[in-house]
């Protein structure tokens, strides 16, 4: 009888008060593995959630991660080590693999996450064995079960098993309904998704599926059953991760279902101004909803460059409707954009404040692996640096703003956050 392949998945998570120790992404992968036909007969999988420290604590090191991993599972006994590669964990991955191998790990390493892009993954992480450069629910079990004599990895060690069929998403098991993602009564906050991918093509963003640029809806009856479970458990807040919640035909059905079961949970939605309409706002007004709009910039030269077109007339009309409905919402901007100046950043803020918006947030630009903007950074003179203890590089200088200008933008952004803390929401 052949031995069971033992897999351990390590994720690097920023803990949030009220959130489960298992994040939604990890839980979705675990659920997919547990529903695979070979689970328990050919492989097992465990999860280790490494908590990323906040800025007041010493940064995480590869040695520290290794110690946690070895204490929990003994690296010598692991057959498949699965590591989550994100912008905040990327610096830990290669040294961690080497530490494991030096300490007796003889298995295979599988990498996935937004930082794993087919064109650059082998250069970033040369010591790994498999790289999943797509949604991983289908690919991960294949990598765990892969034997060298098999031919399922037709492109070598890079797995491009994209879930590019609607039926793949329709058949995804729910980590909430099967208990993979543990929920408690009156839990303070959870993350949720009703679809994956984005219809827009912003060149700084990795929410969309870069290869197919498609959006996949999860099975509707599953979504409705999850809502009923959240209602039963009195979950206090749901952060919906859909990049643009109010796209396509199904978002209003979700809201209608929430209304029909008298859901009182705070729903936080990421939405787009141009897609707002009266029916949507009317439905939201019957629920406890807070909306988040990522405008990014109100300056044409900037939003054309980042391929994030904004119809400012429609934006203003939507803001007027939101205020008429007394809808709670916030708007976020990005500073450090190509073609941006200190003055143009102020103009974007003024565009919003002149319409009475007080809940404005601004975030520094990051250049993410696999994005078109990262590939074009030399064209715009985008220079990166470390702005805090997170270890994440951010753009701090360009052809159109100096580092001192960036510092001024950073101060303005920080003060926006302080003003919001002192004031109220729009």
In short:
The chain is an alpha/beta fold. The protein has two domains: 5-166, Rossmann fold (3-Layer(aba) Sandwich), CATH 3.40.50.2300; 183-422, Alpha-Beta Barrel (TIM Barrel). It contains 15 helices and 16 strands.
- What is the global morphology? globular
CATH topology of the largest domain: TIM Barrel
Q: Which blocks of ≥5 consecutive residues have pLDDT under 50?
A: 16-21, 149-156, 421-426
Number of contiguous helices: 15
CATH superfamily of the largest domain: Aldolase class I
Separation of the first and last Cα atoms: 64 Å
Q: Total domains, how many?
A: 2
Average pLDDT number: 89
Number of strands: 16
What is the makeup of the main sheet?
A: 6 strands, parallel
Q: Indicate the structural class.
A: alpha/beta
Beta-strand share of residues: 15-25%
Helix content: 25-40%
Q: So what's the CATH class of the largest domain?
A: Alpha Beta
CATH architecture level-2 label of the largest domain: Alpha-Beta Barrel
* Strand order of the biggest β-sheet: 2-1-3-4-5-6
The whole-angstrom Rg is: 22 Å
Cofactor: [4Fe-4S] cluster
Organism: Marinomonas phaeophyticola
Protein name: Radical SAM protein
Pfam families: Radical_SAM
Please characterize this protein's 3D structure.
By secondary structure, the protein is an alpha/beta fold. The protein has 2 domains: 5-166, Response regulator (Rossmann fold, 3-Layer(aba) Sandwich); 183-422, TIM Barrel. Helices cover 33% and strands 19% of the residues. The chain has a 6-stranded parallel beta sheet, with helices on both faces. β11 (266-271), α9 and β12 (289-296) form a beta-alpha-beta unit. α2 (62-73) crosses α3 (90-102). The longest helix is centred in the last third of the chain and has 20 residues, at 403-422. It is globular and about 70 Å long. Mean pLDDT is 89; it is low at 16-21, 149-156 and 421-426. Keywords: Iron, Iron-sulfur, Metal-binding, S-adenosyl-L-methionine.
